[in-house]
TrEMBL record, chains A, B:
Keyword Metal-binding: yes
A GO molecular-function descriptor: NAD binding
Domain of life: Bacteria
Entry EC no(s): 1.1.1.83
Keyword vocabulary terms for this entry: Manganese, Metal-binding, NAD, Oxidoreductase
Protein name: D-malate dehydrogenase (decarboxylating)
Cofactors required: Mn(2+); Mg(2+)
Annotated source species: Comamonas koreensis
Enzyme class: oxidoreductase
Amino acid sequence: SKKLRIAVLAGDGIGKEVMPEGIRVLEAAAKRFDLPLEMQHFDWAHCDYFAAHGQMMPDDWKAQLQGFDAILFGAVGWPATVPDHVSLWGSLLKFRREFDQYINLRPVRLFEGVPCPLAGRMPGDIDYYVVRENTEGEYTALGGIMFEGTDREMVLQEAVFTRKGADRLLKFAFDLAQSRSKKHVTLATKSNGIAISMPWWDKCAEAMAKNYPDVVLDKQHIDILTARFVLQPGRFDVVAATNLFGDILSDLGPATTGTIGLAPSANLNPERNFPSLFEPVHGSAPDIYGQNIANPIAMIWSVALMLDFLGNGQGAWRSAHDAIVDAISQTILSGPRTPDLGGQAKTPDVGKAIAQVL
Amino acid sequence: SKKLRIAVLAGDGIGKEVMPEGIRVLEAAAKRFDLPLEMQHFDWAHCDYFAAHGQMMPDDWKAQLQGFDAILFGAVGWPATVPDHVSLWGSLLKFRREFDQYINLRPVRLFEGVPCPLAGRMPGDIDYYVVRENTEGEYTALGGIMFEGTDREMVLQEAVFTRKGADRLLKFAFDLAQSRSKKHVTLATKSNGIAISMPWWDKCAEAMAKNYPDVVLDKQHIDILTARFVLQPGRFDVVAATNLFGDILSDLGPATTGTIGLAPSANLNPERNFPSLFEPVHGSAPDIYGQNIANPIAMIWSVALMLDFLGNGQGAWRSAHDAIVDAISQTILSGPRTPDLGGQAKTPDVGKAIAQVL
Ligand SMILES: CC(C)[C@H](C(=O)O)[C@@H](O)C(=O)O
Ligand SMILES: CC(C)[C@H](C(=O)O)[C@@H](O)C(=O)O
């Protein structure tokens, strides 16, 4: 059968450390489950490339990547040399937007064996998805600075939402909730303060909920929602959120499960008109780069999400996904563990252990 | 000496339950420390008033309140009858903006005797301030809906920042940090994603930091910042934030200290051109209203912040502040405690106990 093609971009910082472990596990899974895959590495979309070329990617980046079935991505950002908004808008945020990866799916789960920062929580108590809108909303470069350098200096920053964007995000969230046992969607809102866009989001969600009589919709303001991620995590199932709110919740959620070093994400174009992108939630982490102590599990779990997506959640691909997640669970329990989980292991130790279990 | 005048507005829901306890403690403190105070109650800025008058407040609300030295506020919002953005923009958000209460100061502290939802944290481990910009930013009714009801429906939502607004917020935050032992300011940013306003905030903060060589500035993206409120709360001292980010952080922070039922806030016009406003961070909480189980401590602590502000942090006023906070600490430790703290006490039990200690 035709091979599925995966573009590999490691990026900056610990992206370069965790990617080899992702690939190690990917290769082990492909071998065991006989998955027809091929990989191609690209040496751009990182800040060294920017230093040499004055831009993050070659002009024809889109043509180069367009034919791939998926993109496996490490992390981008090296603020000491390139401001974050330049490096991110020049790479990751371009992929998300130009490849219309409008769903950013981020599972949050407490694993057995991870010391939970929330007192008294057990595996099973924290198990939900953040479904984040990934192409519009608060992330824009629209607006500007006026009267710069004077007493009247002011800044306008625009957020842009479309009905199409809200509806397809909400549909995905409600479909996901319907497939789960709790059948519960939380909408992250702030309609009491942000007076145009957020009341509109509330209405979009209420309208969508009408199509899902068996799913409960619960609208919560983002402030109290973050409080409840800490105080009542068991109340969540599927959390639908705008780009910004989803960004916040998908760092906070994983933090409550012990470390953001576990959290994977899938940037999906569900229609498969463009390649989807899989990456850890953590960034390039300049503060720990170079020591090889980054936890590769977020990267490896992202590989599992990729395989599941490539195989439409079926057959050998689904089995490969499940086997990787099982191997992750086992390794978290038995060790080796990186320092964020209280261990002393190096990045490759963990990757090798997981590949071994596979 | 001339009496200082306090306007009292209880608002909706549990605002009506906690306010009497705030007043009980205020009266006890005034008596013990001989504070020249007088109170006046206003029966508007609540949703019943809206039901009767079609607006939250009388037309001359500003004239009625203008001469007061402070406003003691409960909570507003009763979404079953009035949408939140209508009730809030018709009351609290008007006060903040029209009385130019540009600082929203919110202490976050773990008290002895409160079961901490973060595993293994002790009093002293969590002790910081959120300094929130309170008059501009993401909270606007600017923008609109276009192509409504069609395939092209879209929404623009504007955020507006001024240099004056950013600078006075940052100055307050740096001054506060300078007066504390850690001398550390964290700026909540999102300059990697929100491409106009947030890089501009970064620059404003860097410029302000130059005036405070003894204070460290640490810029953190809001996503990882929320994660660190859970994972590394000890790293924070003074957190400076825009209106929205400050709103989020000042619910999340208190949640990590056990309950948002403790968190007070001071909406300050430091120049005293207008009355400042003191209120609990929690809202009207329709879900628990009517049972008299709301924790009045956030309200009572807000009273303490008010006295400190009224007395410029000096003399009998400062002593009254300190005595109230001590009485709160003692009562948390000895009980009675409301259900959010694991107890069975009613709202007035806690208020009476604190007044008693005073
Ligand atoms: C009620 C709401 C408008 C308000 C805010 O968002 O400012 C509240 O959450 C707060 O933090 O004071
Ligand atoms: C790096 C940054 C632009 C990005 C985002 O904000 O989307 C990251 O935080 C994420 O969550 O994927």
